[in-house]
Amino acid sequence: MSALPAMLLGLLILALIGDGGFRILRRLRVVEARSPEEWLGLRVLVALALVPAIFVTFDLTGVPIGRVSVGLFAALLFGGALAWDRIRPGNALGYGRDAIRQRWAELRGAPVAIALILATATYSIGSFAYVLSRPPWVYDGLVGWDLVAKVLSYEGKVRSSVFTEIQFNAQCVYAPFTSLNQGFWYLFTPDTPRLWVALLVTGFSLVVWSRFRNYTGSPTAAGLITFLLFTPPNLTFHLTVAQTDMPTMVYTTLAFLAAAEFARGERGILPVVFFSLVATASRTEGVLFAAAITGILLLFRKRAGIVSFWVGGAAALLFAFWNLFFIKHLIGYDPGTYFRDSVEIDFGRISEVLTRAAQIVANRGFYGELIWIIVTLPLVWAIGRWGSRRRWWTDSPARPYLAPLGLLLFLSFLFYMPFFYMWNDQLNPLWTMEHTFKRGFFRFVPVLLFLWVSSPPVLGLLRKTERSSSRTS
Amino acid sequence: MRKKAHHRPLDRSYYLWSLLVLVVLVIFCRTTMCGGSFVDFQRTWVQTVHSASSLDFEYRRQLTYDQTYGILKFIAEQTPEDAVILFPPRQFIIDEVGKGIPLLASPSSSYSFIYPRIPVHYGDDSPHKDDLTHLLVWNHWALDKIGVEPTEQNRVAIFEWPQGLRPDW
Questions:
Q1: CB B127 to CB A164 under 8 A?
Q2: What is the nearest CA distance from B151 to chain A, expressed in angstroms?
Q3: SS (HEC) of chain A
Q4: More confident residue, B168 or A451
């Protein structure tokens, strides 16, 4: 089959997985599309989240992974979800039928929002252009997940000859999201297996734009956040390569937002559990972020927050399943060798880890001017309250999210640091933290930008660029 | 009694504010690292599309990968699929290339390009070190093991593994 029909077939199968999976997860109150953008974006993100789960299940049950088996499963999933919708119909959309018309009306009175949306769209287009025209080339991928993906497509299994025939690199046993999504595309378009990266960027842009639009009430603010999101040089680079960090950022951000909504009593716990799980399936240290989320939700919801143990518990189960059962027991590789055996309190080392982390975030080559966003964040909110008392601007509708999201970022950062502290000095010396943390910090960027842009003075300025009659809540 | 609809004059000041914010965004793109990153990305993906339209995928691979990619292609062409090939030591390859970790120096990246042939790097505790069928001579490495004089023709060559010879590590 030539490249274009094979790519279309892959997209069709992914669409069936995405739509079928989304319909089922919506029924179970795990995901919810609140706008036309989320209708599409969440289907893409759900499809990418389900591919690793399907492949690992096939592997464990002995079903060969190939175009036919994956296609048949996708058709069954879609058919089953459609039948469920027919038997027990509900509001399939989740948003008003005139939402698209309202959106157009709103954007007609917000020229800066249109410019920012178009600029953000070029990230997506550029990402497609890159992944469709250049072969996979980053070192970590070539010695790790790209190899697992390629051989999976030859042999039809995750536990392939990579793990028995050669002395493989540690990157081969990373959490399965990246390798198995890449494996999906090796089945259809072996020359361009990174198509999922561009799909991920597109789906995420659609969903976060919509979420930030809802939180701020401003399409321009949402546009600015989504545009700025990919401007730090290190993040821009990741639009073009298949690494584990972009998906981790995508699903951790969605988990943070779902957690803030749960903390405020707006939504249930299942979206938090789901997105945390997928983030952990992308990099298993995501379990530390899930633990931080659990802590913050208990703080905010007290007794009602007991259910938040599901967030940390489910991520811990996935962590154990992957690292202990799948990798250590079934494959026979011990990822624990890269970490210290015992916990010893060493203040010098703690200080070194924190200093290195701060230096990496402040490095202009990695994050550009993002450090100024972080430094001025408390200031813009402090000025915000002061200025709104003087009626220079109105208070931000995003203020209720400030405390839960701010605390989530803070505790997540603290919980993330032991991951580096526990590295083995010989196999994983701390100086290599630069390679890992410069990408690991991606997880914090979208929410940091949201908190900065949604502060009263910045949001107040952006709202002046919108026709007042076009604003809707 | 219904109140009369009150028509406020349409506020057009948002045009001016929009213009101001757009100017700020242009300045951001021209003067900051983050803005420059956006502009560079636009430029490079357009260039990538232009160059890609005139090159086939194999040529793009040759441009993307290091010089040892050609050796791996050569191995895949010259050996049967069930070959188990002895490679030079990893450090020897890294030193010879002198930049980064070449594809040839890692069993994982080598396997990716010569699959299903199996690479065994000299000195590695590989699962197939006792099943060698071929020897990769690269930059004359290992010619002494098989008693062949180095020439320009055998700088890169594949030899069958001598029967009865055991790996010496």
A1: yes
A2: 31
A3: CCHHHHHHHHHHHHHHHHHHHHHHHHHCCCCCCCCHHHHHHHHHHHHHHHHHHHHHHHHHHCCCCCHHHHHHHHHHHHHHHHHHHHHCCCCCCCCCCCHHHHHHHHHHCCHHHHHHHHHHHHHHHHHHHHHHHCCCCCHHHHCCHHHHHHHHHHHCCCCCCHHHHCCCCHHHHCCHHHHHHHHHHHHHCCCCCCHHHHHHHHHHHHHHHHHHHHHHCCHHHHHHHHHHHCCCHHHHHCCCCCCCHHHHHHHHHHHHHHHHHHHCCCCCCHHHHHHHHHHHHHCCCHHHHHHHHHHHHHHHHHHHHHHHHHHHHHHHHHHHHHHHHHHHHHHCCCHHHHECCCCCCCHHHHHHHHHHHHHHHHCHHHHCCHHHHHHHHHHHHHHHHHHHHCCCCCCCCCHHHHHHHHHHHHHHHHHHHHHHHCECCCCCCHHHHHHHHHHHHHHHHHHHHHHHHCCHHHHHHHHCCCCHHHCCC
A4: A451
Question: What DSSP state is assigned to residue B1?
Answer: -
Question: How many other CB atoms sit within 10 Å of the CB of residue B35?
Answer: 19
Give the per-residue pLDDT at B159.
94
pLDDT digits (tens, 9 = 90+) for B117-147: 999 999 999 999 999 999 999 999 989 888 8
- Predicted ipTM > 0.90: yes
Put simply, whether A465 touches B (Cβ < 8 Å) is: yes
Nearest-CB residue to B106 (from A143, A233, A370)? A143
Q: Are A104 and B19 in contact (CB under 8 A)?
A: no
pTM of the model: 0.94
Question: B37 and A364: CB-CB below 8 Å?
Answer: no
Interchain proximity B112–A146, CB inside 8 Å: yes
C-beta neighbour count of B6 within 10 angstroms: 5
Closest by Cα among A123, A144, A143, A368 to A240: A123
**How confident is the model over B65-91, as a mean pLDDT?**
95
- Of all residues in chain A, the one with the smallest CA distance to B29 is A231
Closest C-alpha among A292, A216, A282, A233 to residue A454 = A216
pLDDT of res. B152: 87
Neighbours of B5 (CB within 10 A): 5
A314-344: b (≥16 Cβ within 10 Å) or e: bbbebbebbbeebbbeebebeeeeeeeeeee
- Chain A positions in Cβ-Cβ contact with residue B34 (cut-off 8 Å): 228, 231-233, 368-370
Q: Which tokens sit at A7?
A: 């790519």
Size of interface A-B (CB pairs under 8 A): 146
pLDDT digits (tens, 9 = 90+) for A11-25: 999 999 999 999 999
Chain A's closest residue to B121, CA to CA, is A167
Q: Which amino acid is at A340?
A: R
Contact B57 A191 (CB under 8 A): yes
| A103 in contact with chain B, both atoms CB, cutoff 8 A | no
